[in-house]
Write a structure and sequence with these properties.
This protein folds into two domains: about 15-90, Orthogonal Bundle (Arc Repressor Mutant, subunit A); about 130-280, Glucose-6-phosphate isomerase like protein, domain 1 (Rossmann fold). It contains 14 helices and seven strands. The chain has helices at about 15-25, 30-40, 40-45, 50-55, 60-70, 75-90, 95-105, 110-135, 135-150, 160-175, 190-195, 210-220, 235-240, 260-280; strands spanning about 150-155, 180, 200-205, 225-230, 245, 250-255, 255. The strands form two sheets. The protein has a five-stranded parallel β-sheet with strand order 2-1-3-4-5, sandwiched between helices. Helix 2 (about 30-40) crosses helix 5. The longest helix has 23 residues, at about 110-135. The chain starts with 12 loop residues before the first helix and ends with a helix. About 35% of the residues are buried. Keywords: DNA-binding, Transcription, Transcription regulation.
């Protein structure tokens, strides 16, 4: 019998990040170091030269080549192209994304149907990935932290803000005290100053990580308030500041992302925390 064919190399950043995370523990020290730098600093990798990236990552340029080949790419330029494609998508305006989505609609086809199936397909892919990567131990720890909290501070900005707002609604219905940060009142620092060790925070952020969310999370962690994170990478600043964190990497359709997996996991945490509180 012939050997099984190797899976195709990721040509999108989400797939590459998943590959790096899966192999990170087995990488030699220097390769792991530059892999971590690449995931944390994708714009630098997309725009830099091998020499400038190596200097910033504190490795030799040859290490970049070794990492690329270890992951299965022909060389560093081949690997760098994944980061450049990500940057093109990130830097495109919503008008450009919409134009690109329109361009893939076949003649005489329903544009609404193509777009709906594309977005829903990306959401299904996100949900499946979240289910496969779900860490039962981290989930149990996160649930216990939230169940024990006097007040839960909900942190999230930009595309994560709808998730925190909905969590505020859900926790209210579950009779659990929660505060959503980021209101138009601009009194977030005053609200954060009220947090105590008997409270908890649920922080949601994805690359490129909203600076306000990172700052709020760090402020609470420094006060020894336990943080539960929902984020997209072990290298995320939210993951590093959290007592427990859960991974969500939302797939996109032509640059547009739903919050399907984020919402599902957030609501699951809220329900599980309320259930544990009642059980205890």
């Amino acid at each position: 019998m012939g050997s099984m064919p190797s899976p195709p190399l990721p040509r999108d950043f989400e797939g590459l990040r998943a590959l790096i995370l899966a192999r990170h523990e087995s990488l030699p020290k220097r390769l792991a170091q530059v892999a971590r730098f690449a995931v944390d600093n994708p714009e630098d990798v997309a725009l830099g030269t091998a020499a400038s990236i190596a200097k910033a990552a504190d490795v030799q340029p040859s290490t970049l080549v070794r990492l690329a080949q270890t992951l299965g790419y022909q060389g560093f330029s081949d690997l760098q192209e994944v980061f450049r494609q990500r940057l093109k998508t990130r830097n495109s305006t919503y008008e450009e994304r919409l134009a690109h989505a329109k361009a893939i609609i076949p003649d005489n086809a329903s544009g609404a149907h193509v777009i709906a199936t594309g977005v829903l397909g990306a959401a299904i892919e996100s949900l499946d990935r979240a289910l496969q990567s779900l860490d039962p131990e981290a989930l149990e720890t996160a649930t216990s932290i939230l169940a024990a909290a006097d007040t839960i501070y909900l942190l999230g900005q930009r595309r994560s803000y709808p998730a925190t707002c909905y969590l505020g609604y859900i926790f209210g219905k579950l009779k659990m005290r929660a505060v959503v940060l980021g209101s138009a009142l601009g009194n977030d620092e005053e609200i954060l100053s009220l947090a105590r060790r008997t409270d908890a925070a649920l922080s949601i952020s994805f690359t490129p990580y909203a600076s306000a969310t990172v700052d709020w999370t760090r402020a609470l962690a420094e006060k020894d308030v336990p943080v539960v994170g929902i984020t997209d990478s072990v290298f995320s600043p939210i993951a590093r500041l959290s007592r427990a964190w859960l991974e969500v990497a939302e797939s996109d359709f032509e640059g547009f992302r739903s919050l399907g997996a984020t919402m599902a996991l957030s609501v699951s945490l809220a329900i599980a925390a309320a259930n544990k509180r009642c059980s205890d």
